[in-house]
């Protein structure tokens, strides 16, 4: 079992979880069920992943068989951009709960600090990068004029109502985190960001630690997650899994793999990780990474020195709409 970190509201969260992004619907339920059998307790999902029904089926099967209780699990979901208006926040959350078959969600993130125009469920769900037929024809995304704080305060009401235990933020830059902290009533417990040796975001990580906000890394293997999405940047960037420095450090730790080195570089610095895999051997390897390898301070610094500020998930590149989230 992975280590537990204590969030700023006292809730305990596993340092290693299973990321549900890009787990196909046909295998997702069984994948989640098998992961629970292996010892996974955190499942990181989202409205936009389109597989929450199946995630819920896997959880239900494990609970029905007595493998775990609901209280043993830490279930994560995310509010998609189309539902930022306060009138739509609880509506979207209740759809997440319905799909997952749960009464509450442990941690609920604002997926991006960007408000899209609302899309009714009956028109398209999850809507993804769709804000209406006319917009789809033009290849644009229409925004809704909703300040982040309005969305966040609607989520605070959801905490009050017992629908979510904790609020998180995702893909926020430092000034947005700072501004939110100045206006919120309930402090966010976590910030999920793209984080790997090509994008270390050290000052943002340090700021979150100072403010008691847990950093959670996604895309820990860098370009690997985005090659299958046909990202030209990812295709042209050298693989971290094949990087000479990563491979050298892996070889220095006997049977360790480059993926273990990359995950341990994060967890050893107190950053949670949510890698995805469909292979049992790799799932176990990821889950037990804290026990299998400990990097030296020199190795940690050597890996961090690979930073190039390369970001593979940048809203500036979404269709023909320019969102300056990180610029």
UniProtKB/TrEMBL annotation:
Keywords assigned: Oxidoreductase
Active-site feature positions: 49
First and last residue of the signal peptide: none
Feature type site, description Lowers pKa of active site Tyr: 78
Domain of life: Eukaryota
Keyword Nucleotidyltransferase on entry: no
MF terms (GO), sorted A to Z: D-xylose reductase (NADPH) activity; mRNA binding
Amino-acid positions noted as binding substrate in the UniProt annotation, renumbered to this chain: 111
GO term, biological process aspect, one: cellular response to osmotic stress
Keyword Cell division: no
Record-stated family: Belongs to the aldo/keto reductase family.
Name used for this protein in its record: NADP-dependent oxidoreductase domain-containing protein
Organism: Kazachstania africana (strain ATCC 22294 / BCRC 22015 / CBS 2517 / CECT 1963 / NBRC 1671 / NRRL Y-8276) (Yeast)
